[in-house]
């Protein structure tokens, strides 16, 4: 009898244990902006928390693009012949412009967050 009770209890616990990580991952996705959900997050943004979440996404994008710009600036100094220096210079400029635009978008989202008032609803 004890063995049957244990098996029945395991039958209820196991399904709950296997869905909990999935439910937690979905809940965490709601509070993270990714390339895949950026468009929807921007469309749906209403609260200060929503706009701050988008601003954080753009902060990360700006940091990534800034890092790539620095890499290509350095690589342009390594190459002395052929098309490589021009290629590196062009990419460094493009990544720097993208970083600057990402910073501006983050700042704009933070302005929208202030306009959303005290609503933080996440």
What string gives the helices and strands in order?
A: HHHH
Total beta-strand segments:
0
Structural Rg: 24 Å
> By helix and strand content, what is the structural category?
mainly alpha
How many helices in DSSP terms?
4
Rounded mean pLDDT is: 81
Percentage of β-strand residues: under 5%
Overall spatial form: elongated
Helicity, as a percent range: over 70%
Main sheet summary? none
How far do the termini sit from each other? 47 Å
The low-confidence runs, each spanning 5 or more residues with pLDDT under 50, are 4-10, 22-27
Protein model, in words:
The protein has a domain of 85 residues. The longest helix has 32 residues. Helices cover 80% and strands 0% of the residues. About 11% of the residues have low confidence. The protein has 122 residues and is mainly alpha-helical. The chain contains four helices and no strands.
Please tag this protein with its features.
122 residues; mainly alpha; 80% helix; elongated
Q: Quick gist of this model?
A:
The protein is mainly alpha-helical.
Task: Reconstruct the topology from this structure.
Layout: H1 2-29, H2 38-44, H3 48-78, H4 84-115
Helix pairs in contact: 3-4
